[in-house]
Amino acid sequence: MAYSRKKSREIAFRMIFALDGEDTLEIACSDEDGLPTGPELEYINRLFTSVKENITEIDEVISGLSHGFSFDRIFKTDLAVIRMGVAEIKYMDTDNIIATSEAVAIAKKYGTEKSGGFVNGILAKVITA
User: Fold this and answer.
1) Within a 10 A sphere around the Cβ of 5, how many other Cβ atoms?
2) Around 13, how many Cα atoms within 13 Å sit in the side-chain half-sphere?
3) Pairing with 128, which of 17, 30, 57, 94 sits 20 to 30 Å away (CA)?
4) Distance CA 122, CA 57 (A)
5) Is this prediction's pTM over 0.90?
6) Which DSSP symbol is given to 34?
């Protein structure tokens, strides 16, 4: 099965959620999809590596922009999505609107009913900061 950029982001999100470099790709992919190859595998690895290598700076950005909400209280799924969005905005050549829109879609799928709005608000602040 061919992987879309949307599906690749979702796999990267699952890897970021686990933040474990060992066999994470295999765990993040569903059996029916098989493993990604080519440009999509490269994209997944770039996104995951961008988060992993810049996690301290990304978390400082998130902490500084999540006014009135303690960093330690951010749901793990929301945090993983926000980390991914910040990495795409700050370290990759992804359009800000696309990075935000895709992050919000993943937050809505995996998070709470308020996750989409929270993720959107933080990433909007990242873009305008």
Assistant:
1) 14
2) 24
3) 17
4) 15
5) no
6) -
Residue where the block lists tokens 């990759």: 92
- What is the DSSP annotation of 55-97? HHHHHHHHHHH-TTS-GGGS-HHHHHHHHHHHHHHHHS---HH
pLDDT at position 51 over 70: yes
What mean pLDDT do residues 39-51 have? Answer: 89
Query: What residue ranges do the domains of the chain occupy?
Result: 5-128
Of residues 65, 91, 70, the one with CA closest to residue 12:
91
Residue 114 to residue 119: CA distance in whole angstroms: 9
- What class is the 5-128 domain? mainly alpha
